[in-house]
Amino acid sequence: MNFHKAPNTYVDQVNLYVQNTERSKDFYSGVLGLRVLKETKKIVTFAANGSDPLITVEQTINVLPQNRRSSGLYHLALRVPTRKDLAAVMAHLLKEEYPLVGGADHAVSEALYLNDPDGNGVEIYCDRPSEKWKWENGRVFMPTNAMDKHLLDELNGESWTGLSKETIMGHLHLQVANLKEAEKFYLNGLGFNLAAAYEPYADFISTGGYHHHLGLNVWNSRGVPVQEGAHIGLNYYRLIFPDRQTRREAIDRLIKLGVFIEQTEGHTFAKDPSGIKLELAV
């Protein structure tokens, strides 16, 4: 099943504030091998397939330093299509001596973790077949175990050509100020389902039976909403609904929860209870 198409709701793009777009370009294009889709002096948009935006980085005036204890981005997660693609990424990063934060086997997926030059968390992962995921009472089994040391055995000496053109934004993991308030917004308002819960610290939510389209945690950010002004890190992310009716119903639920809906030049935005901005798109 394709968990990133209708009738599911999912994240497809992330917009980041960065300190220097050239430095970010060196990372997202030069290191990861994403394609530059659009570029100005202060804004660069990257795609895997050359047509669909994944990540936009923006250098803005008077941007403030990243506050690692504030609500916002924990990591963005790029999903590659196969285990061999993940092995290719790992081999490339090791060859380039780019520092990895870690690697893990989550049973539903295998993942590599690193940071971009601004300290924004980046996960690159591949899913295991969904029929092998273990569910019990509506919750998916998603541990954190050591990565298989034989991952690189998937390769046969192929040269690195960049991230696969089939790479997508698999999920987004957010730091929030209050987990219960976030649940009201994302579950009751936007219509996500709880796929895994590690109370009182983290939730993993999805639509359509995916292990998670969004992660929510308070490990570092409990009680600390998004800080005023433009900070290095997440500007906003885009959430895709399957159709206008589903989006309209979600907006109506958000309004009943007291959420302000902003209409700007044909785009619809909201902020979650922690002040994290998202675009509601179709």
TrEMBL record:
Pfam families: Glyoxalase. Keywords: Metal-binding. It comes from Sporolactobacillus shoreicorticis. This is VOC family protein. Residues 10-127 form the VOC domain. It comes from the Bacteria. InterPro entries: Glyas_Bleomycin-R_OHBP_Dase (IPR029068), Glyas_Fos-R_dOase_dom (IPR004360), Glyoxalase_1_CS (IPR018146), VOC_core (IPR037523).
